[in-house]
Amino acid sequence: xxxxxxxxxxxxxxxxxxxxxxxxxxxxxxxxxxxxxxxxxxxxxxxxxxxxxxxxxxxxxxxxxxxxxxxxxxxxxxxxxxxxxxxxxxxxxxxxxxxxxxxxxxxxxxxxxxxxxxxxxxxxxxxxxxxxxxxxxxxxxxxxxxxxxxxxxxxxxxxxxxxxxxxxxxxxxxxxxxxxxxxxxxxxxxxxxxxxxxxxxxxxxxxxxxxxxxxxxxxxxxxxxxxxxxxxxxxxxxxxxxxxxxxxxxxxxxxxxxxxxxxxxxxxxxxxxxxxxxxxxxxx
Length: 284
Fold this sequence. Notes:
three-stranded mixed β-sheet; 10 strands; 10 helices; Rossmann fold
């Protein structure tokens, strides 16, 4: 990984003591109030949102500790924030005395005003995207993985429903809920709402940010420089497979629809993705 200026912090009683160091490998890093946390279940649009926000703030995009996400870019940007792409779960009562328990767990009981964007997506589209990206044996296997019933080592992150509900039901001052489908269809509006909620100004024009980070523009950029990014050009391009809403209809059979209905219907209805309890019957 290319070295770059990174902020790290130790947060105590909601106060952040921020220092900086130049390093190519980051360890023992803790979140600060200058961090923007982009959290979401894998394949929910985390990469897209993190890159949009990093570009908007003219700030670097990275992960936590030694974990470098696909979205990592802009380490030379001089903006005042660090945008962190994470699959961090919302928990309570973890007993560690701090919000950041690990790169994968956030204790809501110790929230200290951190800026957080939770992005969620139709789990059926997540299933197709995860199946293609992670190379699971089948789409059906991926659906089982998304409730924590993972055969062998094919799990992606445990229960999708538990993950989404953990953040969706959290009541935090600086937590923004972003629906992936709306972000794709109305990126300017969704970015504007997030920045207004946080009370943070953009460093770059949002219309220009959206153009630079759009799927076709980003694919062209990664075709040119993908081998300089984490995991290389091929993996970076896989992460930008399609990004469209409703692609699951091109892949689901009646069998997979029945599984998805059994696992996800309550949240599909709650989040507004389905209103017909017999939706699965429309598939052959």
